[in-house]
Amino acid sequence: MADDHQAAQSIGIPLGRIWVIVWCVAGVVALVAGVIWGSKLGVQFSLASVALRALPVVILGGLTSVPGAIIGGLIIGTGEKLSEVYLGPMVGGGIEIWFSYMLALVFLLFRPQGLFGEKIIDRV
Amino acid sequence: MIYRENGQFKTSYRADQQIFPILQDRAFIVLLLAMAFVGVPMMASDYLFQAVLLPFVILSLAALGVNILVGYCGQISLGSGAFMAVGAYMAYNAYVRIEGMPLVAAMLVGGASATLVGIAFGIPSLRVKGLYLAVATLAAQFFCDWVFLRVGWFTNHSSSGTVSVAHLQVLNWRVDTPVEKYLFCLAFLVVFGLMAKNLVRSSIGREWMAIRDMDVAAAVIGIRPMYAKLSAFAVSSFIVGVAGALWGFVYLGSWEPAAFSIDRSFQLLFMVIIGGLGSVMGSLFGAAFIVVLPIVLDHFLSGLGAVSGLHISTALVAHVQSMVFGALIVWFLIVEPHGLAKLWSVGKQKLRIWPFPH
C-alpha cells in the first residue's frame, strides 16, 4: 500500500477502507499518548508541538518498526533530559529543545533506516 | 479576443527568449508595477500599510524563497523560519557592529549568512528526502531558535534576546513612514522576483525542476544532484534571509527569536502550497491569502456580530477565525490541489480562447 498505491489498488486492496483504518489506529494510539501525557504533565495548547518530537523518535527507531518506536522513544526521552543535565551547563542550557532533532539528523546521515527499520531506503 | 498571442511573431532569438513573450502580459506587468509603486501609496491608509501591505510584501518575498526550494526543487523544508532568523540577526550584527554599514549591504550580509546556514542544513538532502528531509530541517529550526536565544553575541548581549533597530536610512533617504517602508520592501520584492523568474527559466532552474520531477532520471541525463540541490538551498535561503532581515528591520523594528519560530516555517510552507508549488506568481497569491484572509475574517465576524445583535467576544472571534481559516485551507486544497497559481493559469487559458470553449 505505502509502496505503490496503484499496484495495491490493482490487486484488489480497497484503498479507501485501508486509509480509514490507518488513520483510526493512528488517532487512537495518539489519543492514548495524549491522555497519558495530559494526566501527568497537564494539558495546554502547546501540547500540539509535542507531536513534532515524535518525528525524531520514529526516525531513530526506524519507520515500519513498532519496537523501534518504543526504543527510539526511550532513547530520545532519556537522551533529552540527560543531555540537558550533563551537557546543558557547558553550552548554557536549554539544549533539550533541539537535542532530539540533531540526534535524528546524525542518524539520517549515517544510518537512514534507523535502528530497526527496513534496510532498503530510497536514497538519491 | 483581447488576450491573444496570434500575430505576435518572433524574428530574433532575443524576442523569443523574453521573460514575458506576450505583449499583453508585458502591459499587465507594467501596469501592475505602476499600480504597486504609484497607485497604492496614493490610495491606501497608514493602517492598511502597517497591517496588510507591509507583511504581505515581506512574506511574499520569503514565500518566493521557499517556493524555489520546495516548489521548484522539491526539497521539503521546515526550517525557513530559522533562515529568516539567521538573516535578521546577522543583518542586525552587521548593521550594529560595523561602523557606517549601509542598510542594504547589511541586509545582503544577512542573506549571505542565511545562504551558508542553508547550505549546511541542506547537506542531509543529498542522502534523504521527503519526510526525512523535513525532520532534518526541523533540526535547523530548533537549533537556530536556541542559538539566538542563548548565545549572547548574536543579540549584542541583550538580556532577553530582544534586539531593535532604529533610524533606517538608505543613502539620504530616511525610511520611517509606513509608505516609505512599503516602497523599500516592494523594491526588494520586485528585484528578487525578477531575479527568481529569470533564474527558474534558466538552465539552473530547469535542473531544479528535473531533480524535483525524478531525481534518478535527472542524474542519468547528467545533472549533478549535489550541485542542483545545494544551489536551490543557497538561492532559497538567501532570499528567505533577506526577507527575514526586512521582517525584523522594517516591519517589527524590534524583535526576539520567537518572531521566527516553527510557526513561521509552517506559515511559509502553507503559503507556498496554497499559492501553488513551482510558480513565482503563486508565492504572491499564497502570501496574500494567508495575510489577508485572517484580517478579512476578523472584520467579517465582528461585522456579523454587530448586525445580528449578538454579543460576540473577541476571544470567540479569534477562535472562530482560526477554525474557519483552517477549514478554508483544507477545502481549498481539496478543490484545487495545484493552488491559486493554477486558477490564475486556467483563467489565462480561458481568456486566450474566449469566446470559444476550446
Overall description:
The complex is a heterodimer of chains A (124) and B (358). Chain A is mainly alpha-helical. Chain A folds into two domains: 1-42; 44-124, no CATH class. Helices cover 69% and strands 0% of the residues of chain A. Chain A is built from six helices and no strands. Chain A has helices at 5-10, 15-41, 47-50, 54-61, 66-91, 96-110. In chain A, helix 4 (54-61) packs across helix 5 (66-91), helix 4 (54-61) packs parallel to helix 6 (96-110) and helix 5 (66-91) crosses helix 6. Chain B has a two-stranded antiparallel ribbon. Chain B is 72% helix and 2% strand. Chain B has one domain: ABC transporter involved in vitamin B12 uptake, BtuC (Orthogonal Bundle), CATH 1.10.3470. In chain B, a hairpin with a 2-residue loop joins strand 2 (169-170) and strand 3 (173-174). With 358 residues, chain B is an all-alpha fold. The chains are: A mainly alpha (124), B mainly alpha (358). The A-B interface holds A 49, 52, 55-56, 59, 91-95, 97-98, 101-102, 104-105, 108-109, 112, 121-124 and B 123-124, 126-129, 131-132, 134-136, 138-139, 141-143, 145-146, 149-151, 215-216, 219, 225, 262.
What is the mean predicted local confidence, pLDDT of chain B?
85
Write the H/E string of chain A, N to C.
HHHHHH
- Shape designation of chain A: flat
Distance between the termini of chain A: 22 Å
Topology-level CATH name of chain B:
ABC transporter involved in vitamin B12 uptake, BtuC
Number of strands of chain B: 4
CATH classification, class level of chain B: Mainly Alpha
Range of strand content of chain B: under 5%
* Overall domain count of chain A: 2
Number of strands of chain A: 0
Instruction: List SSEs of chain B in N-to-C order.
Output: HHHHHHEEEHHHHEHHHH
How would you classify the helix and strand content of chain B by structural class?
A: mainly alpha
Output the number of helix runs of chain B. 14
What does the radius of gyration of chain A come to?
Answer: 17 Å
Main sheet record of chain B = 2 strands, antiparallel
Q: What is the CA-based Rg of chain B, rounded?
A: 21 Å
Instruction: Kindly give the count of domains of chain B.
Output: 1
- Which second-level CATH architecture of chain B applies? Orthogonal Bundle
H/I helix tally of chain A = 6
Strand content of chain A: under 5%
